[in-house]
Write a structure and sequence with these properties.
Length: 215
């Protein structure tokens, strides 16, 4: 688990089409199989999460660096930024007092959002849409289908969206810059220019976040 960044499969989960003439039992089995693919495979194992829960901040950093196979933290800006992304997410989840399965799904969500950005070049708008689809499956709106699939309650789901807003989405251009630019461009790139682009998107972005939370 977590031996490399972005090994999970990103993108929209396809809807299951039930063939004509199938029984209610087979429909439920198909729906169960669809649900089990949400945020799978897990980014961190139960053993890895349990191990980190017993560590302080420095210990969490060391464990995640090992799990991610980051070996150049002192000289590689990209590794340092990505490690901070995951460590900050894990520590935030610890402040939420999540269960082990909630840790797994939240950390997998963090990883898949980066995977979608880095590998699929997913735009901010499409990333928000993808998040909405995922939260519809693992969040409170799924209660109407089957309560046992409701991994996060309303308060937790809204807190996750708020956290992603300040940790990833408000800095989306910076992460795009990190993944798509050469080392030289990263060194000489101006933060002011990037922040100006972020400011232009701010109003539209906030409207999308509020719409996502009400979905």
């Amino acid at each position: 688990m977590a031996t490399s960044l972005g090994t999970t499969v990103g993108g929209t989960t396809p809807a299951v089409v039930t063939p004509v003439g199938t029984s209610p039992e087979s429909e439920r089995d198909a729906e169960l199989q669809e649900h089990e693919t949400i945020l799978s495979p897990d980014f961190l194992s139960v053993a890895q999460i349990t191990e980190m829960l017993a560590k302080d901040v420095d210990g969490v950093e060391q464990k995640l660096a090992t799990f991610l196979n980051f070996k150049s933290l002192k000289t590689c800006l990209k590794e340092a930024i990505l490690l901070d992304y995951y460590v900050s997410g894990f520590l935030w989840a610890r402040s939420m007092d999540f269960s082990i399965i909630q840790y797994q799904k939240f950390m997998t969500l963090l990883d898949m959002l980066l995977h979608n950005l880095r590998t699929l070049h997913m735009s901010l708008e499409n990333s928000l849409k993808w998040l909405g689809e995922v939260m519809a499956e693992i969040g409170p709106s799924h209660l109407q289908k089957n309560e046992k699939w409701n991994i996060f309650d309303i308060k937790q789901a809204n807190a996750i969206i708020d956290y992603l807003k300040i940790s990833l989405f408000q800095h989306y251009k910076l992460y795009e810059f990190l993944f798509y630019s050469t080392r030289e461009e990263i060194v000489i790139g101006t933060e002011t220019e990037i922040n100006e682009k972020l400011q232009i998107q701010e109003e539209t972005f906030n409207a999308r976040i509020e719409k996502l939370k009400k979905a």
